[in-house]
Amino acid sequence: MAFTIAIDGPAAAGKGTISRAVAAHFGFAHLDTGLLYRAVGRKMLDGVDPIRAAQELLPADLQVQGLRTAAVGQAASRVAAIPEVRAALLDFQRAFARRDGGAVLDGRDIGTVICPEAEAKLFVTASAEVRARRRFEELVAGGAETDFETVLAETRERDHRDATRADAPLKPAQDAQMIDTSELDVEAAVAAAISAVEARSLEHVKG
Ligand code: CDP
């Protein structure tokens, strides 16, 4: 049986951590769709045409080191605005969403475009400052040399580009449940996400 949990939201809102924990909790498969765009962005930085890169993307391309850097994040959001790139990645994501046994997908357009029929839709946010602080700490822990102001500016730039593009812009689905993690630690954010999914699945069972 298919059961899709769509988790969307802006950069560094905590979608990755929440999605992995929610998938483990329900025993569902997890797909970080941002990684697809990061892999295409990486290829563009290497000089490959992004549309071609998306059409020919292989599982091994997702294993490449360094996909989480800020430079690759910016490249990802640039290629993500190209409709042909998004189209090339659509079928794989849709098939993953409806696989047997349940799936959690995190991204920007899962509840709106990839899987509008998802049984549960969450939109995870936090203030730009809180998100930039988390991303800054992540980058520094990974050995990057950067400062908070740069990360904050990059976070805002990427959110703006993602929210204003014409094709599949970042926005909550009409029936999404909002989770603001600004004041929540990881444990509390995960608990909030799990109860939101449980509330929806009860409604679903009741019809
Ligand atoms: O982890 P973080 O939130 O920083 O970014 P990500 O989820 O890895 O996504 C990187 C970029 O890919 C985003 O800024 C979006 O431009 C793009 N993306 C998208 O357009 N649609 C998705 N479903 C997932 C990511």
UniProtKB/TrEMBL annotation:
Comp. bias intervals (Basic and acidic residues): 155-165
Region feature (Disordered): 155-178
Gene3D superfamilies for this protein: P-loop containing nucleotide triphosphate hydrolases
Location(s), subcellular: Cytoplasm
GO MF, one example: kinase activity
Enzyme class, UniProt record, top EC level: transferase
Domain Cytidylate kinase: 5-197
Superkingdom as given in the UniProt entry: Bacteria
Record's keyword annotation contains Nuclease: no
A Pfam cross-reference name: Cytidylate_kin
Reactions mediated catalytically: CMP + ATP = CDP + ADP; dCMP + ATP = dCDP + ADP
Matches recorded under SUPFAM superfamilies: P-loop containing nucleoside triphosphate hydrolases
Signal sequence, start to end: none
Keyword Oxidoreductase belongs to the record: no
Residues given in the record as ATP binding sites: G9, P10, A11, A12, A13, G14, K15, G16, T17
EC number: 2.7.4.25
Keywords recorded for this protein, A-Z: ATP-binding, Cytoplasm, Kinase, Nucleotide-binding, Transferase
Family to which this protein belongs: Belongs to the cytidylate kinase family. Type 1 subfamily.
Protein name per the record: Cytidylate kinase
Gene that produces this protein: cmk
